[in-house]
């Protein structure tokens, strides 16, 4: 009986050691795989993330995966040693969770907004001029893969940053699958310098030449000012923070108000701009419609004869699309507003040609529209989007 019992115990030990070997092999292989993948995706992830790559998230993924392999590769009988891998799993999960909680505690959700951030321009504020433009220092604007409105908002904000830091504005206007229009087909500018006018290539630059600001839309932030990059713009002396030749701004959001909120630059901004008219002032200084678009817009406005325009904007596609079944509420609302005006016109800006046809049936000859029927994302389509924005600004 003892000999049989010893054989059973030896068999269990053999299966146990086999299970341990499997755990070690799986964990070692997966660790190597994880390191290789991390190296390969670190650069694209860092360009997509708003701040530095959240490596703790990677740790959690790694721990969960390695724990999965550990549990399912541990082949042994129901003995007390089965609790060893469970303990191993608990320790490896609890440690990164603790690290993530520490990161959250010290991350953007913990940042407090200065109590004097608002109002932007107190009546008793002293006046101070914006710094002179240094021809040898630059803000370089790089748009993200977004649409027309986001590009304009971010470009205008980059211009505001160039003003408060006294730098030339360069634009790296990039064509993409969702934006196929050249800058010159949309706008003219006496302020923006072509990128080719400055020797600016990634191959000829190192980290000592530029600051990089990734200022993109943050779905996680309850307030945009809470994000570290926006906190920097809203609270620090940017002329001391940014001393290198280039400030590369990659953005798709309107962050100019952050500069107006900055106590170090507020006086200079307030001496030039009214907070409630900040965007329109910056836009009109920086951009002018291209001759073709300006001519088409003026021709359409000439047919209005000083009649009031009620603007309607409805997006039915992309991720912020409005439910089709509720579109009628826009028409009814606009129709209700029209009772307050004498013989108004209606203008609808939408990414749906079907919706525009329905609007024509609803409003009849009171619907104002441009003659072109562009294809989405093409140069003609982007030009039409710019015209829509300009017309909405007249409503």
TrEMBL record:
<keyword id="KW-0472">Membrane</keyword>
<feature type="transmembrane region" description="Helical">
    <location>
        <begin position="57"/>
        <end position="74"/>
    </location>
</feature>
<feature type="transmembrane region" description="Helical">
    <location>
        <begin position="23"/>
        <end position="45"/>
    </location>
</feature>
<protein>
    <submittedName>
        <fullName>Uncharacterized protein</fullName>
    </submittedName>
</protein>
<keyword id="KW-1133">Transmembrane helix</keyword>
<feature type="transmembrane region" description="Helical">
    <location>
        <begin position="81"/>
        <end position="100"/>
    </location>
</feature>
<keyword id="KW-0812">Transmembrane</keyword>
């Amino acid at each position: 009986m003892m000999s049989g019992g010893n054989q059973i115990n030896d068999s269990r030990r053999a299966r146990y050691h086999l299970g341990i070997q499997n755990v070690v092999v799986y964990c070692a292989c997966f660790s190597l795989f994880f390191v290789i993948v991390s190296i390969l995706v670190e650069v694209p992830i860092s360009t997509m993330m708003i701040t530095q790559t959240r490596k703790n998230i990677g740790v959690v993924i790694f721990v969960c995966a390695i724990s999965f392999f550990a549990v399912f590769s541990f082949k042994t009988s129901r003995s007390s040693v089965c609790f060893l891998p469970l303990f191993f799993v608990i320790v490896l999960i609890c440690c990164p969770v603790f690290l993530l909680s520490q990161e959250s505690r010290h991350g953007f959700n913990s940042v407090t907004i200065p109590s004097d951030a608002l109002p932007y321009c107190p009546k008793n504020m002293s006046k101070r001029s914006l710094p002179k433009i240094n021809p040898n220092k630059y803000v370089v604007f790089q748009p993200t893969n977004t649409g027309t409105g986001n590009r304009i908002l971010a470009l205008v904000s980059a211009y505001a940053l160039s003003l408060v830091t006294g730098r030339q504005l360069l634009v790296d206007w990039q064509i993409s699958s969702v934006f196929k229009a050249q800058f010159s087909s949309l706008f003219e500018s006496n302020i923006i310098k072509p990128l080719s006018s400055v020797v600016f290539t990634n191959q000829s630059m190192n980290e000592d030449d530029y600051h990089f600001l990734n200022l993109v839309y943050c779905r996680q932030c309850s307030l945009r000012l809470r994000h570290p990059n926006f906190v920097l713009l809203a609270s620090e002396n940017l002329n001391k923070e940014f001393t290198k030749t280039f400030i590369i701004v990659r953005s798709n959001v309107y962050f100019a108000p952050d500069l107006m909120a900055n106590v170090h630059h507020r006086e200079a901004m307030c001496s030039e701009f009214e907070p409630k008219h900040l965007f329109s002032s910056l836009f009109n200084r920086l951009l002018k419609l291209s001759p073709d678009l300006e001519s088409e817009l003026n021709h359409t406005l000439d047919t209005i004869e000083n009649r009031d325009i009620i603007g309607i904007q409805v997006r039915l596609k992309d991720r912020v699309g409005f439910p089709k079944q509720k579109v009628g509420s826009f028409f009814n609302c606009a129709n209700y507003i029209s009772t307050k005006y004498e013989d108004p016109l209606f203008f609808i800006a939408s990414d749906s040609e079907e919706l525009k046809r329905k609007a024509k049936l609803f409003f009849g000859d009171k619907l104002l529209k441009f003659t072109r029927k562009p294809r989405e994302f093409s140069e003609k389509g982007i030009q039409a989007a710019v015209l829509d924005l300009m017309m909405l600004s007249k409503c």
